[in-house]
Amino acid sequence: FQHRDLIPVQNYCEIAFDRLEKDPLGQMQHIYETLKLPDFDYVEPKLRAYVTSLQGYSKNSFPELPQDVRERLAREWTRCFDEWQYRK
Question: What value does the mean pLDDT of the chain take?
Fold first, then answer.
C-alpha cells in the first residue's frame, strides 16, 4: 500500500473482485479504458465467449472458519480489510 502512489496513474488500475464477478465485461472494459489499452472491441467478443462458457460454474464452498481464526485474520490483515472495505 505504501508504494502504490509510486506507480504512475496511467499504469495502475485496481478493481474489487466482487465487481469483477458481477460484471466481468464491464470491469474489463474499465481496465482497458483506465490503462488506455488498445483494441477492447477486438477482445470483447472473446471475453464474452469466455464468460458465457462459465455459466453453470459454481464456486467451491468451505465450512466457516473457527472464531479464533477469524479474529486472528481480522487482526493481522486489518490494513487490507480497511483498505478494501471488507467486513471483519
Answer: 93
d(CA 23, CA 30) in angstroms, rounded, equals 10
Please give the model's pTM, rounded to 2 decimal places: 0.79
* C-alpha distance from residue 6 to each of 1, 35, 80 (Å): 10, 16, 19
The alpha helices in 6-87, defined as continuous H runs, are 17-22, 24-34, 40-53, 67-76, 78-83
DSSP per-residue letters across 24-40: HHHHHHHHHHHTT-S-H
Q: What distances in angstroms separate CA 73 from CA 9, 59, 81, one per listed residue?
A: 31, 22, 9
The size of the chain, in residues, is 88
